[in-house]
């Protein structure tokens, strides 16, 4: 892996759903080891942008590279797509755990099916990452037996089992009761400190200020303001961003 190539670049990308223009020529980059928070009002296109990064959505115009490879071209093969999905992990607001599988089975499924690991190897990996998120003792529990915060920590551990280079988080704490937000942010903060490349759509400004290197403020499908986290959150330049931040408090 060439460390001088950005993890993700996006150049003038446009995304429409029918006649609705959601991304309107948006550009930027995510550098290796960088933690970038994406903020902005509901409906401004944050999830859509994130989903373009691992090709859960296609784009209508522009260029998007992951690890230096353009991913939205006809040449991009199914084999490359499978590889992309292992390199770029995703953690969703609603956890998306398999309800009929135990925690351990949730974690070992993709390493076995996609990476071809043996049951023993995948169980070892799962144990390692469950330990990391503080849930080693929940290996045989089922998702419904866990709190929201525990479910999200399992989802993060599941993502880590694929040894991703980048993890995308789409409002990972928005579905949680307030008292459970902290335990998830703590795990994310630890990953950030270890150098994981992370793109985090979030409304948690304290997390963004403390854990993110950079903040991108999106407004109606464009980057309206961006810069170092402290600067964007504590010294917003535009009226739009000031208004957005004041509504959060
Ligand atoms: P955010 O994550 O910032 O709240 P989204 O990216 O989810 O915003 O959505 C941006 C806009 O695109 C919204 O108006 C939403 O309704 C619309 N949208 C998102 N996904 C789809 C889809 N699959 N089909 C049609 N419209 C969509
Ligand atoms: Mg969203």
Automatic annotation (TrEMBL):
Keyword Ribonucleoprotein: no
Domain ABC transporter intervals: 8-245
PROSITE patterns registered for this protein in UniProt: ABC_TRANSPORTER_1, ABC_TRANSPORTER_2
Assigned keywords, A-Z: ATP-binding, Nucleotide-binding, Phosphonate transport, Transport
Tree of life domain: Bacteria
Keyword Transcription carried by entry: no
Gene Ontology MF, one: ABC-type amino acid transporter activity
CDD domains tied to this protein: ABC_HisP_GlnQ
Biological process according to GO: organic phosphonate transport
Family, as annotated: Belongs to the ABC transporter superfamily.
UniProt-recorded name of the protein: Amino acid ABC transporter ATP-binding protein
Organism of derivation: Hassallia byssoidea VB512170
């Amino acid at each position: 892996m060439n460390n001088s190539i950005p993890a993700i670049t996006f150049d003038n990308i446009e995304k429409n759903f029918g006649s609705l223009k959601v991304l309107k020529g948006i550009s930027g980059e995510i550098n290796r080891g960088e933690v970038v928070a994406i903020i902005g009002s509901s409906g401004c296109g944050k999830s859509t942008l994130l989903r373009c990064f691992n090709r859960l959505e296609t784009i209508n115009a522009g260029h998007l590279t992951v690890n230096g490879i353009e991913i939205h071209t006809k040449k991009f093969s199914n084999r490359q797509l499978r590889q992309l999905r292992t390199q770029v992990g995703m953690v969703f607001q609603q956890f998306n755990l398999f309800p009929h599988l135990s925690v351990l089975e949730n974690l070992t499924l993709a390493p076995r099916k996609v990476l071809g690991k043996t049951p023993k190897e995948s169980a070892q990996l799962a144990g390692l990452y469950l330990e990391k998120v503080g849930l080693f003792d929940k290996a045989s529990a089922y998702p419904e037996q866990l709190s929201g915060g525990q479910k999200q920590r399992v989802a993060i551990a599941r993502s880590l089992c694929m040894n991703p280079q980048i993890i995308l988080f789409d409002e990972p704490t928005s579905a949680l009761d307030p008292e459970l937000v902290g335990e998830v942010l703590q795990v994310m903060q630890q990953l950030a400190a270890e150098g994981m490349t992370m793109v985090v759509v979030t409304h948690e400004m304290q997390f963004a200020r403390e854990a993110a290197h950079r903040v991108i403020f999106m407004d109606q499908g464009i980057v309206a303001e961006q810069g170092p986290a402290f600067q964007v959150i504590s010294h917003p330049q535009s009226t739009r961003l000031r208004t957005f931040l004041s509504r959060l408090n």
